[in-house]
Write a structure and sequence with these properties.
This protein is 21% helix and 26% strand. It is α+β, with helices and mostly antiparallel strands.
Length: 111
């Protein structure tokens, strides 16, 4: 007598046919805006996969959007990209066009 429920099967194992989205973000990317002083704002990008080099992304953002930016380490959120100004729409377009994430994986927050 054998019990079929006790056979070793890992439901979270990756099948060979599921790797169609290689190079695409797995979780959500959150793009937020923070008010600094007066009219100054700060755009933060959080949740980009650690497979991508954050500093190279910031360098591309700075060149593409003509703004300053940095990578800040946060104890809870990990590495967060900070950009000067309201860059939410252009960051959304850039991440989806380059292929880092699909449009439904990016969440834009703010006013």
């Amino acid at each position: 007598m054998s019990i079929q429920n006790l056979q070793a099967h890992d439901p979270f194992a990756i099948d060979a046919g599921e790797d169609e989205t290689s190079g695409v973000q797995q979780g959500f990317i959150h793009i937020r805006i923070q008010q600094r002083s007066g009219r100054k704002t700060l755009t933060t990008v959080q949740g980009i996969s650690p497979d991508y080099d954050q500093r190279r992304l910031v360098k591309a953002f700075k060149k593409e959007f003509a703004c300053n930016g940095t990578v800040a380490s946060h104890p809870e959120y990990g590495e967060v990209i900070q950009l000067q100004g309201d860059q939410r729409k252009v960051v959304f377009d850039f991440l989806s066009q380059v292929g880092i994430a699909k449009k439904d994986q990016i969440k834009v927050h703010g006013f």
